[in-house]
Amino acid sequence: MSSIKGKKILILGGNALTIDIVNAAHALGLYTIVTDWNTPDKSPAKLVADEYWMDSLSDIENLKRKIEAHHVSGIITGFSDSYLPYYARLCKVANLPCYATEEVFEQTLDKAQFKQLCQAYDVPVVPEYNADTFTPAKLSPSNRVIIKPVDNSGSRGIVICDNPKEWQVQLAYSKSFSASGHVLIEQYMECDDISFEYKIQDGEIILSSICDRYIYKTAHFGSVTKELIYPSNYTDRYLREVNDRVIAMFKAMHLQNGVLFMQAFADNEGFYFYEMGYRLSGGRHFIFTENQNNSNAAKELCHFAVTGSMADYSLKERNNPNFKDLCCQISILCKGDTTIYSIKGLEELRSLSQIIDLTTYYHPGETVGKEGTTAQIFARVHIVVRTQKELTSIKQHIFQTLSVQDKFGNQLIIKTL
Fold first, then answer.
1. Domain residue spans in the chain?
2. How many angstroms separate the CA atoms of 34 and 46, rounded?
């Protein structure tokens, strides 16, 4: 670590989640610079960085000049799919380490291309319908479909359709979130949901964590994660049935370094993948992997940015998806499109030994984002306990203690227990 202390790292994008990257870089002794086109009040990672720039991520030539003038040693981005192409281009022109090419990012970002890739390597996927031949007349509450833009993330543009009369409106709505104007039409899955994190070190693919995802479903505008529980109930079965095929797929893509996440449904018949991201996940799995296995993907990506190496230790030796403790991340959801007036209970919750991290994304005076998207998440709470009984008790205490209200005294938190 001493060899990288004091080196400068440029962080692309400054949203609230990016504060995790700033903190990870500081833990390694790096000097942090955050850049995007937003002012610090709308780009909060700038407020905790050592320095910030007001340069657009698309202004590649200007950023290249500043990287050289300021002797920046590495570049990183984190939680937004849309930033990945700029990250790849900037690394290329600045001749700095990048864990993937722009072409590989494009293949993994596009949901349709991802499904084709899975099918080529016998990795199971969610059944889908041909958008050109689909017959909406068959739609009903017992025969629903989910429409999603092929090239967006954060649950934006995803809608559930069960009424033929609403088909055209909802199809147009979903397409409006796609830069290419294309959508996937998939079978609506009524089964369990799982998230996986893989790490890649010098071509070796390592399964780092598996968690069960519990979803808050809106009536028509998609869904958002309300809870993650590690390790997954499906861990052993997944390792037996699917893991080797997934690793073979990523090896065939010649992935060399980085971190990725995948999401799948599961039932008694099998697993059905539907999405991946070749980046850090908003699920922030690294908080638990560091607690359980002393391996933090945010720190490892920062290390890669300035050295070209994920770590000075073996990721395979440290990472084990069978956590020794019961770990749970709760997403505190608030009613969409509401303005926060007061927040109470945060400090009391942060004092509890079972809560290892509590991060909020809104302050009084700010408006919560759209229902059914990740912008609806007010806070994420990370809990480590030994038993299910202890977990149930601490979750109940969280919802009894935390209060988020509007100016009329109305409670904005959605109780998702």
1. 8-98, 127-187, 193-234+252-405
2. 6
**Angstrom distance (rounded) from CA 55 to CA 44:** 15
- Tokens found for residue 27: 């833990």
DSSP state of 24: H
Spelled out in words, what is the top-level CATH class assigned to the domain 8-98?
alpha beta
Task: For residue range 227-283, list pLDDT tens digits in order.
Answer: 999 999 999 999 999 999 999 999 999 999 999 999 999 999 999 998 899 999 988
Q: Would you call 306 exposed, middle or buried from its count of C-beta atoms within 10 A (0-12, 13-18, 19+)? A: buried
The CATH fold of domain 193-234+252-405: D-amino Acid Aminotransferase; Chain A, domain 1 (3.30.470)
153 touches 159 (CB < 8 A): no
Structure tokens at 61: 């030539």
Q: For the purposes of burial, counting CB atoms within 10 Å of the CB of 414, is it exposed (0-12), middle (13-18) or buried (19 or more)?
A: middle
Tokens, residue 194? 């799982």
pLDDT of 182 = 83
Tokens of 140: 């009903």
pLDDT at 43 over 50: yes
Q: 123-143: per-residue pLDDT in tens?
A: 999 988 887 888 888 898 888
Q: So what's the architecture of 127-187 in CATH?
A: 2-Layer Sandwich (3.30)
Centroid of chain to Cα 44: 18
pLDDT 10s digits, 343-395: 999 999 999 999 999 999 999 999 999 888 888 999 999 999 999 999 999 99
Q: Give the relative orientation of helices 60-69 and 84-94 as an angle to the nearest 10 degrees.
A: 50
Spell out the alpha helix ranges (H) of 267-380. Answer: 286-293, 297-307, 315-318, 346-350
**Which residue from 381, 320, 378, 380 is spatially nearest to 354, judged by alpha carbons?**
381
What SS3 class is residue 270? coil
Helix (H/G/I), strand (E/B), else coil: 104: helix
CB 147 within 8 A of CB 172: no
pLDDT at 154 over 60: no
Residue of 160, 253, 274 whose CA lies nearest to 200:
253
CB-side neighbour CA atoms (13 Å) of 321 = 24
pTM higher than the cut 0.85: yes
Query: Dihedral of CA 311/314/317/319: which sign?
Result: positive
